[in-house]
Design brief:
The chain is α/β, with parallel strands linked by helices. Helix content is 24%, strand content 14%. Strands 1, 5, 6, 7, 8, 9, 10 and 11 form an 8-stranded mixed sheet that branches. A 3-stranded antiparallel sheet has the order 2-4-3, with no helix packed on it. A hairpin with a 4-residue loop joins strand 3 and strand 4. The two termini are 28 Å apart.
């Protein structure tokens, strides 16, 4: 398989929190064995769900409950490498070129080839399959997908099913009814499930979806109809990322569907109950105390924890820290004009342009509270792509901002593109919690594997 790309795949300067000697060498290969679980990833973006489901990535030590026995390697005092899961990505796709560049750069270092990432709309992929083109791999165990959320987001216009955008994210030329709008792309994910017939599928979206009339029920019903009503689709659950060691205010609604014909009889009965017994519930229990304040859980991870060791942009050699939004303060009436609190979780990282990125530090004139830093001469600035990525729990060895064509004349992925793909992503640590729970239940659920 080919590994050539049209942009620079040489390692850029790494994040300030790691040294060269602390980046682990990834020995595992992505080729599947009989014990691996093959994952087909849709709306993959820059890979937050894929990285989390595969494991083996670097994350902050405070994000992981030591009782879980999930740590494979201690990198330094703050950072650890997690154990690899049984899940292996065999297919990924997205329509954003910035997402493809980021995903491939990270995943190629772990042995993946560039032809695994399909740079096409899910609508076009399904249509090609129906025309007889061999698109999707066989024997898929799990399908994951964060179908586009802009049309269901509280921060957006909440068009839902009546999206003004088509499946490629472009404005529609007419208002005729169609299944190819951005708000209906979950239905095309359902068609992929029809085709590959996985044992499990995971679909995620913004919390706002559950408050849009009957949208949640419609989507749940449509997913249940996959492969001739072949799936149990559990009541979706809203998970707060901070309850799982992610230092971010981010809530996502998770749909989980399980193939009826593959289930053991006991598992089928349990999953069909109105209240699924705890031992069969696929939703992971919280590991951190953000919502419950349970003293038996880990303390909430905050921004100060993950920013420890980061240099100011002008001092950093990490391109994702050194290149950032220069948008000026626009007043409290605008979105993204607030200063983060280092001793709290970070804001929801949005897929926005530079003017909507929150401030790492505001000046005293604009109400800045970090007087200790301001007194040291540190200037007002917004969060960097690296800081946004760490809030989202992307590993610090993930290169976002990068030069192109082995040169320093222009970027293959700019700071603007990095903000976009980071804000669109699922936090890898949240995805890892879901993956580890499903891996734990796999043999309890299914007749094989």
């Amino acid at each position: 398989m080919k590994k050539t790309l049209t942009y620079d795949i040489i390692e850029d300067s790494i994040c300030d929190v790691l040294s060269d000697s602390q980046i682990p060498m990834f020995a595992y290969k992505p080729q599947t064995s009989e014990n691996d679980l093959k994952m087909l990833s849709l709306f993959s973006g820059c890979g937050g769900m894929d990285i989390g489901f595969e494991g083996g990535f670097i994350c902050h030590k405070k994000s992981i409950d030591p009782k879980k026995n999930w740590i494979d390697n201690v990198i330094n005092n703050d950072w650890v490498q997690l154990k690899k899961t049984k899940f292996v990505t065999v297919f990924a796709n997205d329509i954003l070129s910035e997402a493809r560049i980021a995903w491939l750069n990270y995943m190629q270092k772990r042995g993946y080839d560039d032809d695994i990432y399909h740079f096409q709309s899910i609508v076009d992929l399904v249509k090609l399959h129906k025309q007889g083109v061999n698109i999707f791999p066989e024997n898929v165990d799990i399908v994951t997908g964060g179908f586009p959320c802009q049309d269901f987001s509280v921060a957006g216009k909440r068009k839902g099913f009546d999206s003004t955008k088509n499946h490629e994210g472009k404005l529609r030329s007419n208002a005729e009814p169609t299944e190819e709008t951005r708000g209906k792309l979950y239905f095309w994910m359902k068609q992929v499930i029809d085709i590959v017939k996985p044992k499990i599928f995971i679909a995620e979206n913004v919390k706002g979806l559950v408050n849009l009339g009957e949208v949640k029920e419609i989507i749940q019903k449509d997913f249940s109809s996959a492969d001739d009503n072949g799936y149990i689709v559990l009541n979706p659950k809203v998970l707060h990322a901070a309850d799982y060691g992610v230092p971010e205010s981010r809530e996502r609604v998770i749909f989980i569907g399980i193939r009826k014909s593959e289930l053991k009889e006991e598992a089928y009965k349990a999953l069909m109950e109105k209240e699924v017994p705890c031992e069969y519930n696929p939703y992971p229990n919280p590991t951190h105390d953000f919502s419950s304040k349970n003293s038996e859980l880990m303390p909430t991870v905050v921004c100060r924890d993950i920013f420890n060791g980061l240099k100011e942009p002008e001092e950093s050699k990490d391109l994702s820290q050194a290149n950032l939004s220069k948008a000026k303060y626009m007043g409290t009436h605008c979105q993204g004009q607030k200063e983060i609190c280092l001793d709290k979780i970070g804001p929801t990282i949005r897929s926005e342009h530079h003017g909507n990125i929150e401030f790492r530090r505001l000046s005293k004139e604009h109400g800045g509270m970090m007087t200790d830093e301001l007194d040291l001469g540190m200037s007002e600035r917004r969060l960097t792509p690296r800081e946004c990525a760490l809030i989202q729990t992307f590993p610090p060895d993930y290169t976002f901002v990068r030069y192109k064509d082995y040169s320093k004349k222009g970027f293959a992925l700019s700071a603007s593109g990095a903000y976009k793909v980071i804000g669109n992503a699922v936090p890898p640590v949240l995805a890892y919690n879901i993956a580890m729970r499903l891996q734990e239940l796999w043999s309890l659920y299914f007749k094989s594997n």
